[in-house]
Design brief:
five-stranded antiparallel sheet; two-stranded antiparallel sheet; alpha+beta
C-alpha cells in the first residue's frame, strides 16, 4: 500500500508535546555511591524470582541521578543492546540540527536499497518518496523503525554516531570501551548471516526481508539456496548459533552500566542549560512518546512514573532503557534492563514488566 508522496511527520512538527520537565541538580551523580539501601536486597530477591520464572537471564541497572546510588544485577557483563543503539543516533542527529548542519525539515529520498526488515512504517512507502528527517527520527525512536535508523546513519555518518556514543559515556565518567561499535541495522543482518556463510555479507536489505519469511529453523537452508551454495558449507548449524557468534564479535554490545552512563549524559545536558540542553531536551521528549515498550518496564511501574525510554528487540533478546521521573519522589533514575533466553518476545516482555513491578514495590523508585 502506497502512502502519500511526502511523509513529513506533521503530527510532530516540533518536539514540544508532552514536554518532559528536567530539573537541574548538584551532585556527583555519575559516581556510584558506596551505599546499600534496604530496597536493594528486596530488589535482588524479586529479580531472582523473576529470572526463575522467565527461564532466561536478566540484567538490570538502576542509578538515582540525584543521589548517585546505583544497583546492578549482571549490569557489568556484556549484553546485546539491539535498538538501544538508536539513542546515540538520535543524539547525533539533534546535535547536528543544533549546529546548523542539518534541518529536521530536510527530506531524504527513500530508495529500495534502504529497506530493512522490522517494525515501523517507513518501509510502507514507495521508493523515491522524500521523507523528512523529523519523521524518520520520530519513527526510529518511538516505534524502533530500522529503515529510518539506517537512513539517518547514512545522513550523519556512522563514525560520528560512534564518536557521539563514546563521548556520552565518557561525559558521565564511564568507560567508552565498555560499549562495542554501533553498526547499521542492515549490517546486523549481514553480520549474523555472515556467521553462517561469508558471502551473506554481500546481501542487501531486500534479501534479508525475503529470508525472514522463512521459519527460524529453515533460515540457514534458505540462505544456502539464496547464495547457491551447498548447505554443508555453512559455518554454523543454525540461526541460534549464528546469532550467538555474531554477538561475540562485540558489535552493538555493551554493559548496562555503560549504557546507563550514556543515558545519564542526556539528562545531565538537558538539565545544564548549556549549549547541549536543547538537543538533549528534544531527545527526551521524543523518548517520552515511545510506544514500542508499553508491555515492558512501564507496564509494571506506577502510573505516576514518567519514563522517557527506548526499547530493543532481537533474536532471543530484548531491552528497555530510559530516564524515569516521579514528582513525589527523589529522582530521576536511569533504568536499563535486558533479557536473554526464550524465543517468544512475549516471554521477554512479561519478564521486563515484572522487573518494572519489582522496581516499584522494592522502593527503588521511592515509596511504592
Amino acid at each position: 500500500m502506497a502512502l502519500p508522496a511526502y511523509a513529513d511527520g506533521t503530527q510532530t512538527q516540533e518536539f514540544e508535546t508532552q514536554e518532559l520537565e528536567v530539573q537541574a541538580f548538584e551532585t556527583n551523580w555519575y559516581y556510584e555511591v558506596d551505599k546499600q539501601s534496604t530496597w536493594q536486597a528486596d530488589l535482588n530477591a524479586r529479580v531472582a524470582a523473576i529470572e526463575g520464572i522467565f527461564e532466561g537471564t536478566l540484567g538490570v541497572y538502576v542509578q538515582n541521578l540525584a543521589t548517585g546510588e546505583a544497583y546492578s544485577w549482571l549490569a557489568d557483563r556484556p549484553w546485546y543492546l539491539a535498538s538501544l543503539v538508536k539513542v546515540p543516533i538520535a543524539a547525533q542527529v539533534l546535535a547536528e540540527r543544533q549546529a546548523g548542519t542539518l534541518s529536521l525539515d530536510e527530506r531524504l529520498t527513500l530508495s529500495r536499497s534502504d529497506f530493512v526488515d522490522g517494525a515501523g512504517p517507513v518501509i510502507w512507502h514507495d521508493p523515491g518518496t522524500p521523507i523528512s528527517i523529523r519523521y524518520l527520527l520520530e519513527q526510529m525512536v518511538t516505534v524502533s523503525d530500522n529503515t529510518a535508523s539506517d537512513m539517518l546513519i547514512d545522513r550523519v555518518g556512522l563514525a560520528d554516531v560512534n564518536a557521539r556514543a563514546r563521548a556520552m559515556i565518557a561525559d558521565s565518567g564511564g568507560n567508552p570501551d565498555d560499549i562495542g561499535p554501533i553498526t547499521k541495522l542492515v549490517g546486523v543482518r549481514q553480520g549474523v548471516y555472515g556467521q553462517l556463510h561469508p558471502d551473506a555479507r554481500t546481501l542487501g536489505g531486500m534479501d534479508f526481508i525475503a529470508l525472514r519469511q522463512h521459519r527460524l529453523g529453515q533460515r540457514a537452508v534458505a540462505l544456502a539456496r539464496r547464495l547457491d551454495v551447498d548447505p554443508s558449507s555453512l559455518k554454523q548449524p543454525d540461526y541460534d548459533h549464528a546469532f550467538d557468534a555474531y554477538e561475540a564479535t562485540g558489535e552493538n554490545v555493551g554493559t548496562l552500566r555503560a549504557y546507563g552512563d550514556l543515558l545519564a549524559s542526556v539528562y545531565k545536558e538537558a538539565a545544564s542549560g548549556g549549549l547541549g540542553a536543547q538537543p538533549s531536551q528534544a531527545l527526551l521528549e521524543v523518548m517520552q512518546r515511545t510506544t514500542s515498550g508499553d508491555n515492558r518496564l512501564t507496564a509494571g511501574m506506577s502510573d505516576t512514573t514518567r519514563f522517557a525510554h527506548k526499547t530493543g528487540t532481537q533474536h532471543r533478546r530484548s531491552c528497555d532503557a530510559g530516564i524515569a521521573t516521579r514528582e513525589e519522589a527523589n529522582g530521576p533514575w536511569v533504568i536499563v534492563a535486558c533479557s536473554r533466553g526464550p524465543v517468544a518476545v512475549n516471554d521477554h516482555e512479561r519478564a521486563l514488566a515484572r522487573v518494572g513491578d519489582a522496581l516499584r514495590y522494592s522502593g527503588a523508585l521511592g515509596k511504592p
